[in-house]
Amino acid sequence: MEISTVGVIGVGTMGSGVVEVAARSGLQVVAREATPELVEAGRGRVEKSMDRGVARGKLDEAARDAASAAIAWTTDLDDLAGCQLVLEAVPERLPLKLEIFGVLDRVLDPAAIMATNTSSIPIIDVAMGTSRPEQVLGMHFFNPATVMKLVEVISTQLTAPEVTEAATAFATKTLGKRVVPAPDRAGFVVNKLLVPYICQAIEMYESGHASASDIDDAMKLGAGHPMGPLTLADLIGLDVCLFTAESLYAEYAERFYAPPPLLRRMVAAGRLGRKTGQGFYEY
Description:
The chain is α/β, with parallel strands linked by helices. It folds into 2 domains: 178 residues, 3-Layer(aba) Sandwich (Rossmann fold); 86 residues, N-(1-d-carboxylethyl)-l-norvaline Dehydrogenase, domain 2 (Orthogonal Bundle). Helices cover 47% and strands 13% of the residues. The chain starts with a strand and ends in a 15-residue tail after the last helix. The relative contact order is 0.09. The model has no long low-confidence stretch (mean pLDDT 96).
């Protein structure tokens, strides 16, 4: 399948990065948000990122202008009708995703691929909200999508093999990513390892075992990690960490996966990390 036009639904931090990656890869992109205000916010994120690339010498002005011209912005899901692949990147709420996939099921060509960027919701739950679950799979990008090279491709029991092959080829050959296939299980590959590690660091901090900076420095200087677990949690978003930990615990029912109380309290208090200016550190 030739994929020349892609749709991205939800252009927050993750979705805007995918929009930029796709546009810079020579694709036509239809970027959809729910309101005009969110459209403008998403457009601003993409333009700011590409302007930063020009300033740093990683992108020339002609390439930036060509990528900008390749992006169509909309609030109407019907405008994605001509896309061969659509990636949904809205908040982690299954009813919202089901509503969106129901519309995509109606407007997209029968051969179009429908992908979700969820980090924790079972892909099969999303797929069964359509009349063609064989066309649905997960494509889990990582933040920032413009930098991170990995994409997890998650097939369900019903995903057609040719759909998995086409999505994998698209991510590798067109977007230049490294694909890791993952089973449709909570956490896939990365988050099943990463989120318990982050939660263990939070428990260590909460118990007074070590300070936040000491935990982070220990993992950077002792384990060679580029970023400590608490700094990483702030970057990911503590609400996302909590949701993923809850999904892991619901799936496997093992204490190891349970989110620590401090994480729940910080999310309840609105201390979500970088995006709110305060998490384990102040920004």
